[in-house]
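re: the backbone from monday

yeah here it is again, tokenized this time
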């Protein structure tokens, strides 16, 4: 093999390795986390957020979320190897080892806290650290294997990004920031349970007590419907407290009724035929709802 061909092969190999490291951070989930955090930041300011707060706040939140995801890969590698959805992840596939993943996670966590303390504020750093411990420690290591309501209580950590964005700008916890977190908190169970319905057999083989495994499809579908109705009500609260205006109200009503419709169709369907459709809509719902929050905010400033 020619020297140039060897260099090209090594370059491709290194590129693949870096992509596998990137996968440890769960980039698709990370993108949604950063978007909700960004919206929290922008809603907290009457005008533009300072560039320093924007850059370092998002960087700190991103690094902490990525660190939590990487540790989740380490703790769940046995489960991931069993499930078809996750068996090609970097650790169960053998492309990376647990030691390197732990080093990466700890390095990201330390850097995250340093960035937030030095360049943002102590409150945001403390709340980010609490969310990191809640997800990587309490949820991943204990709740996920201990209770069928794991995603409910574990969802507290996942709901933090918009609140973190809010505190990064304001330096304080307020009703508005908590309401943004509440939206994500109520959204999380129906979002994840829809996926769990589709993957219930794999969760059962992995001995993970997800709700469809322990309580069956009918009960899980009913819970998704109940949470979708609760989410519709909670999503109206920003308008009720005059945090948002008519544009947001219109969007929240349309999106919320759409979620209820998806949940009702799932509830009335046989088996898991509509589970992934509901799951897909839930992602569209949250991202679009936060986009409406942002559009309404800047429209009211004009």
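seq for it, each position gets an aa:
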């Amino acid at each position: 093999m020619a020297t140039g061909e060897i260099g090209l092969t090594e370059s491709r190999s290194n590129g693949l390795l870096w992509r596998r490291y990137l996968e440890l951070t769960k980039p698709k989930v990370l993108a949604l986390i950063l978007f909700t955090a960004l919206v929290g930041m922008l809603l907290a300011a009457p005008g533009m957020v300072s560039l320093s707060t924007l850059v370092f706040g998002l960087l700190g939140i991103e690094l902490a979320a990525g660190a939590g995801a990487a540790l989740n890969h380490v703790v769940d590698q046995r489960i991931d190897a069993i499930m078809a959805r996750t068996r090609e992840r970097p650790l169960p596939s053998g492309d990376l080892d647990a030691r390197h993943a732990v080093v990466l996670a700890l390095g990201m966590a330390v850097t995250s806290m340093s960035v937030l303390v030095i360049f943002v504020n102590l409150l945001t750093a403390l709340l980010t650290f609490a969310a990191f411990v809640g997800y990587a420690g309490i949820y991943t290591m204990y709740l996920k294997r201990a209770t069928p309501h794991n995603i409910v209580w574990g969802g507290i950590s996942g709901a933090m990004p918009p609140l973190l964005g809010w505190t990064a700008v304001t330096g304080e916890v307020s009703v508005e920031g908590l309401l943004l977190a509440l939206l994500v908190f109520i959204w999380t169970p129906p979002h994840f349970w829809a996926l769990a319905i589709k993957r219930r057999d794999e969760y059962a083989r992995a001995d993970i007590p997800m709700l469809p495994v322990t309580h069956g499809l009918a009960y899980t579908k009913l819970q998704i419907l109940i949470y979708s109705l609760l989410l519709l009500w909670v999503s109206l609260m920003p308008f009720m407290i005059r945090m948002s205006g008519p544009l947001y109200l219109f969007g929240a009503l349309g999106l919320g009724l759409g979620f209820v419709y998806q949940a009702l169709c799932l509830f009335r369907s046989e088996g898991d035929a509509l589970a992934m459709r509901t799951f897909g809509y839930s992602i569209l719902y949250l991202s679009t709802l936060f986009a409406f929050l942002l559009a309404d905010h800047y429209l009211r400033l004009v």
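The chain is about 80% helix and 0% strand. The mean pLDDT is 91.
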